[in-house]
Model the fold of this input.
Amino acid sequence: MSYFQWKPEMSVGLTRLDDDHKSLIAIINRLAGSLGPDDGNSGVQQALTALLRYTEHHFGREEAVLRAVNYTALTQHRDEHKRFIRDLQELRADFATMEDTEQKQKLLDFLKDWLTHHILIEDMAYKDRVSGDKTAAKAAEKFSGADIWTTRLAG
Ligand SMILES: [Fe+2]
Ligand SMILES: [Fe+2]
Done:
């Protein structure tokens, strides 16, 4: 059984965003699989970089969807996303000097807890707004990775 599993109650009402969450969970599981005492740090660094990139991508898509449906709590939601990206960048930098397995396990648990909480509480709050909404689905499909750069520049 994998370390972290997506469950149906985590569905936020839009397949494209659920798929993103499943991909993030898959990367965290990859990370969990590369934390053995004999594993070097490079696999973990790669997984953390993948997690950071995919998280930016997912947040960009999610924010595009929420903007398209004029979600009222978008600013607060974006702030949560920004804070997590900053934490993730710091963790990735700290990891280079992290030695023992216990610390690595803490890092893993933090990522799992953060994502679980964020999906079940923060993301779940927009479920009714995007479920079955054509504008939301269209915005999710239309989003391209390159859009991240323009949204980031917009602050
Ligand atoms: Fe979110
Ligand atoms: Fe999300």
Remarks:
- The mean pLDDT is 90.
- The helical segments are 15-32, 42-68, 74-95, 101-123, 127-130, 134-142, 147-153.
- The two ends are 40 Å apart (CA to CA).
